[in-house]
Please model this.
Amino acid sequence: MEPEQYSFPLERYMDPTVFERVKAFVAVKETPCLVMDLEVVERKYRELVAQLPFAKIYYAIKANPMDEVVKLLYDLGSNYDVASAPELNQLLRIGVPGSRVSFGNTIKKARDIRYFHEKGVRLFATDSEEDLKNIAENAPGAQVYFRIITEGTGSDWPLSRKFGAHSEVIFALIKQAKELGLEPYGLSFHVGSQQRDVGQWDDALARCTYLFESAELVGINLKMINLGGGFPARYLEATPPLEVYTAEIKRFLAEDFGDEIPEIYVEPGRSLAADAGVLAAEVVLAAKKSKNSLFRWVYLDVGLFGGLIETLGEAIKYPIYFDKTGETEEVILSGPTCDSMDILYENYKYRMPSSVAPGDRVYLFSTGAYTQSYSSVYFNGFPPLATYVLPR
Ligand SMILES: *Cc1c(COP(=O)(O)O)cnc(C)c1O
Model:
């Protein structure tokens, strides 16, 4: 793919009037900082509900755990996919009841299962016998759903291999869950985050159909399929629009289940939060390493440790905007820390105005997901990424 010009049409990623408000807001703030436009989160949530009206939404809180985001989604009717006790505690503090929470992490301590159960959580994900036994012991009678393994093919940030199990293991777990007094409730999968191949849901759903049928043969009626996350945000590399995903998913469901579609859950993280965020940063330094090198190194005050870890392997390519015009050049973009892995983009060449200089502001769009929650606490003394909500 051709490298994008820095001067992509602003409107592709931002409403220009909102961008003016963002710039004015951060003009007096220290960089780097993330500004979230809650109106975008709300719009994304409503779009998903409109397109999958039968689905229950479990927001994957890890994508953006800011209180304001979590509260907004609560008011809109969302449930939550939670991975740890601190995430649950945050929700409880805000007033979200345990009944709106799913413990979606298949890797969990027995005492955390007990804690979740005590706090009213009834829905647990699993993919192993050891974990299933822990759930039976510490959350007796709970609803369990079983995560099937996917390859993450076609996604920009795969969540494969580490999670889920193959069909024969899942089938054994379904039967065992019933024997242990749990309610085998459904199946889940995650096709990989920022999944650009809509067909991946079809493959996963076909395996769900097979497991639903196998379970029925032994007298177990599974009720639910959790389609996970993977829905797209707008980065430089294009994806089909959300409507294509949801239309295809509805078609796959109708093909596989006819009129008897199970309960459907989705766990969006990125697709709700990413496009709502603008990360404001500053150029620290621009330099050439040798007289004859082709490219300047441009160092920003944000890098992999400041919240942009998803640029690892240049996986996620954020739209980056400079408020300058004129001649442009290709550069190597890097973060500010004393770690040589803190390079954002070297193979994929971003273009920047040649006049860019230390102190210039830089804006990274679609940075509302997987940034602040990933930022390190004190590497080289840099604090975690500061966050703000754009005043309405
Ligand atoms: C991270 C995660 C999600 C969210 O995925 P996105 O691609 O960000 O929407 C959903 N479900 C589970 C189990 C996850 O781990």
